[in-house]
Amino acid sequence: MTEPATPYTAGRSATPEDSVALRARIPGWGVDLDPKDRPSFPREQPGIATGAHWRFPDRQPEEQPRERSIEHAMLTPAFGTSVPLKGASGAIRRYAYRRFSEGRAAHWLLLIAADRVDAWENHLASFASLRPDNPVTETGIGSELPGKGFASRRTGNRVDVNHSWMDPVVVAGPWVLLAGLGAAGVLRTFRGRRQGQEQLRHAIVS
Amino acid sequence: MRAMVYRGPYKIRVEEKDIPKIEHPNDAIVRVTTGAICGSDLHLYHGMMPDTRVGTTFGHEFVGVVHQVGSSVQNLIPGDRVMVPFNVYCGSCWFCSRGLYSNCHNVNPNATAVGGIYGYSHTCGGYDGGQAEFVRVPFADVGPSRIPDWMDEEDAVLLTDALPTGYFGAQLGDIVEGDTVVVFGAGPVGLFAAKSAWLMGAGRVVVVDHLDYRLDKARSFAHAETFNFAEYDDIVVHLKKETDFLGADVVIDAVGAEADGNFLQHVTASKLKLQGGSPVALNWAIDSVRKGGTVSVVGAYGPIFSAVKFGDAVNKGLTLRMNQCPVKRQWPRLFEHIRNGYLKPSDLVTHRIPLEHIAEGYHLFSAKLDNIVKPLIISATA
């Protein structure tokens, strides 16, 4: 009768190599064996020296209203000033921050929705600028050939090839949809005008 | 100055921006000489992280030269070569004063659930990042350190996130001598975690991924056994067989939000943004660790809900440990390990990309082309 597997008995199989062999094979094996040598042990180290020479930091001036989580008691003493809120996406984000805590799904889902609106606002605005968005250069697709894109994807058993075909859809899909809707609108207007002209002609003839 | 700018999912370009200015008395402005693209930058690039605004400059791994300092800065002067941890932190709040720098409460007005991170969306504070020629560095007396003369610049830039995060991930596992450690993900963080597990006395280290070229790296760089999960009907069952049906003592999730291996999970998270992250690796970790074992999570996830198999974690009595890495806390010990030759982080650098070509760099990294493992970004001002 074969020996039952480990979980069914208290014994445990030895690892393939013992500590002597591992120390010989792997540079530095075991140098941090003692938890006291590990810098994040224990997790909390009250009084750790950080270089801060203040009890509470100076406050960064709030030069324009800064959105904040309602889970904060106040605006933090330092904050990023990259890309202030603006436009429709800014209004959605402002509402998400003002109305919902981080604990509410609505907070995050509104922020994700605002991200999509933000991208659309900026793409459309770019067409009225001297540097319109260029999906060819901005997606970096030019690296496909030097990066051996075809060969790279066919090597081994990569599972991401199952869904990587969706990436162009994510990038170009909304534009194709918009172009289709625009074309349908133009056609409908054109047909409507022709029908109107023919009805007018019939009315005049009769 | 020239800076990478986000234009929407999968789209970035390099634009002319104003050089950042001192906005707080303890700010420094750093001229970036070398930066990097992190795997977690891809979550931003793919539009997964809430409140990622068009116009933001990414980049939380960078080193450079101090260009200007604010009126209260005491420890740095212009001209100093500095490495900057990815954490923005004050050094004095309830969390920082206990060493939890990544959980600082004084730098991120947008969220209390995460600290500040350079170039990582407004959810992480709205700071521009270092994939640019210049960057604002708040609390310059706390975060940055001068790069030691003996240290290679490419080693230094990998010390700003990837290496400390991997090392921290292994620490979260509370590894004891002889433990079997499984690492999901053979990206830079996973490879560093695997390598670090040996330093902590692991008896066996196994790395799981689906990219053969990265698994090659796991064998050569991290001395690990490897399994390509795409070659197995069920990687969890295979790992059970490999561990005498007990399960691994410690499992490290070094994949995070865009884990592959389950089509539905990946698509709902990465493409449809209906989850904070695809928890495939995390669920595999929960399933393949032994009862009473430890799961360490250093892969990045967004703040929205994810379909995690929490019941199994409860019923198996697991210890789940996770955090963003408090980088600077790791540095003194990691400096020793580099000096002693136990670690050579720059061995993982595969691509050096000029800032002007960063869009191509993101595409290579996102699509995993050309055997890319770690791309560095070289500034024209370097």
What would you say this structure looks like, in words?
Chain A contains six helices and no strands. By secondary structure, chain A is mostly helical. In chain A, helix 2 packs antiparallel against helix 3. The termini of chain A are far apart. In chain B, helix 11 links the parallel strand 16 and strand 17. Chain B is built from eleven helices and 17 strands. Chain B is globular and about 60 Å long. Chain B folds into two domains: 213 residues, Quinone Oxidoreductase, Chain A, domain 1, CATH 3.90.180; 160 residues, Rossmann fold (3-Layer(aba) Sandwich).
* Intertermini distance of chain A: 104 Å
Basic shape of chain A: extended
Quick one: which chains have the greatest interface? A-B, 105 and 117 residues
If helices are DSSP runs of H or I spanning 4 or more residues, what is the number of helices of chain A? 6
Largest sheet of chain B: 7 strands, mixed
Overall structural class of chain A, as computed from helix and strand content, comes to: mainly alpha
What Rg of chain A, in angstroms, do the CA atoms define? 31 Å
Radius of gyration of chain B: 20 Å
What's the count of strands of chain B?
17
Overall 3D shape of chain B: globular
Share of β-strand residues of chain A: under 5%
How many E-type strands of chain A? 0
Q: How much is the average pLDDT of chain B?
A: 97
CATH topology of the largest domain in chain B: Quinone Oxidoreductase, Chain A, domain 1
Number of domains of chain B: 2
The residue ranges of chain B in which pLDDT falls below 50 over 5 or more consecutive positions are: none
- Tell me, what is the CATH class of the largest domain in chain B? Alpha Beta
Task: Please state the second-level CATH architecture of the largest domain in chain B.
Answer: Alpha-Beta Complex
